[in-house]
Amino acid sequence: MPTGTRTSIQAPFGAVVTAMITPFDSDGSVQYDQFHRLCRFLISHGSDALLVTGTTGESPTLTSSEKLALYAAAVEAVDGKAPVIAGTGTYDTRASIEASKAAADLGVDGLLAVTPYYSKPSQRMLIAHFTAIADATDLPVILYNIPGRTARLIEIPTLVELAQHPRIVATKDAVGDVGFSSRTRQQVPEDFAIYSGDDSMTLPIMSVGGCGVVSVASHLVGPQINAMVMAAGSGDLAEATRLHDALMPTFEGCFLEPNPVPLKGAMSALWEPMGSPRLPLLPALAETTATLVAAVGKVQSL
After folding, report:
1. Known catalytic residue: 144?
2. Which one from 172, 195, 264, 298 is the annotated catalytic residue?
3. Sorting pLDDT into bands at 50, 70 and 90, what band is 300?
4. Pick from 14, 119, 198, 258: CA 20 to 30 A from residue 148's CA?
5. Helix (H) or strand (E) holding 195
6. At residue 209, what are phi and psi to the nearest 5 degrees?
């Protein structure tokens, strides 16, 4: 594991998991060579694990073959130095199972399964859906709880029941309610991990028992986020708060437009050209990129 990684069972994939963007060429095709370089850049700049084909990776616009090629590229790029998590969840249980099995065959280390969107299944249906995915492979599974995108909350009793499954090991909590996070921590088993699904909520969620973050901003300020998480994990609240406060403009800048639009603009300006997002997303406005780049510049020396 990279230096600084929390190794307790409460952080099964390390404390800072980066939800990766997918770089595109000018013609909109996936730039796999650049993605390979990005994987290596991230694990040398504060990321403990990589999440491939999540929302930040524009998963709704990627084909099945593109997703599999990205998993293979990530596994090759990290070469065992960090876990690779595949975002295989969809609103179709059967398709999610097939994608999970294919990702497992390519050597990924874990799966992220989002709450089925649009169809709005009930809690007992969510249990059946996530259990079927967890039963399909031997890989650990993170449940992605983001009702703002899916229109369905994974309620705490449902999380408690699903946490009994030996391969459902964590939740990515993007509920946006630290009270919900606190009540979850109080009721789920001790070894069930809670990752913040929102950079700005990382410190509040860690303060009530979270283990880290599935981060967007870690593309830009990975070492600083890692330092914040390590400070919080070691009980140095003053240092964690100092870093959180300094990083907030970057966290907010990443969502001035729909994710990953601002991030792609800033990465193109600060690292390598990432290409335009695929429709229905459009490239970032110039003022969005300028605001985010300026925010990043203010924390580079932290």
Report:
1. yes
2. 172
3. confident
4. 14
5. strand 193-196
6. 115, 10
Q: Which of 67, 144, 195, 264 is catalytic?
A: 144
172 is catalytic: yes
In the structure encoding, which two tokens stand for residue 50, read together? 């990589």
Q: CB of 99 within 8 A of CB of 70?
A: no
Contacts of 282 (CB under 8 A, 6+ apart): 261, 276
**Burial per residue of 172-200, b for 16 or more beta-carbon CB atoms within 10 angstroms, e otherwise:** bbbbeebebbbebbeebeeebbbbbbbbb
DSSP 8-state symbol, 226: H
pTM, full prediction: 0.95
Give the C-alpha separation, 206 to 208, whole Å.
5
CA distances for 71 relative to 32, 64, 78, 88, 155, angstroms: 10, 11, 11, 10, 30
Q: Copy the structure tokens of residue 152.
A: 């369905």
CB 20 within 8 A of CB 42: yes
Residue 135 host element (H or E): helix 123-136
What residues does 87 pair with on adjacent strands? 112
The whole-angstrom separation of Cα 243 and Cα 215 is 15
Please name every residue paired with 141 in a beta bridge, in sequence order, or none if there are none: 111, 168
pLDDT in tens, 34-77: 999 999 999 999 999 999 999 999 999 999 999 999 999 999 99
Cα–Cα distances in Å, from 173 out to 57, 127, 164, 284, 286? 18, 17, 18, 26, 31
How many CB atoms are closer than 10 A to CB 42? 24
Q: What is the DSSP letter of 102?
A: H
Contacts for 242 with CB less than 8 Å, ≥ 6 apart: none
User: pLDDT (tens digit, 9 = 90+) per residue, 267-287?
Assistant: 999 999 999 999 999 999 999
Q: Return the structure tokens found at 218.
A: 């870690």
Residue with tokens 């880290």: 212
